[in-house]
Design a protein that fits this description.
This protein has helices spanning 10-13, 42-51, 62-78. It is mainly alpha-helical and 87 residues long.
């Protein structure tokens, strides 16, 4: 296990931000070194590698999105702003 001082991304352990080149792969290969296998096709993997996010318009139904939005609103109303882990 590495310690905080071994973190290659200073902004996670320091008091200032930085724009750093990625040190780790975006998509890890399979344990045998072959390309990763999973639910994303090569074009989706390339888009994620290049942009850092994926747009998946049909991932959640409108009912699921409404449920998530209600939960976000609840958490926003009930969050304790004095806690260090609340942004």
């Amino acid at each position: 296990m590495t310690g905080a001082s071994d973190d290659p991304y200073y902004s996670r352990v320091g008091q200032r931000w930085e724009l750093a080149e990625r040190q780790d792969p975006v998509v890890w290969p399979a344990p045998d070194g072959s390309p990763a296998r999973g639910p994303l096709d090569p074009s989706a993997l390339a888009a994620f590698r290049d942009h850092g996010y994926l747009v998946m318009p049909a991932l959640f139904s409108t009912t699921e999105v409404a449920t998530l939005m209600r939960e976000i609103e609840h958490l926003t109303r009930t969050a304790d702003p004095t806690r260090d882990d609340v942004i």
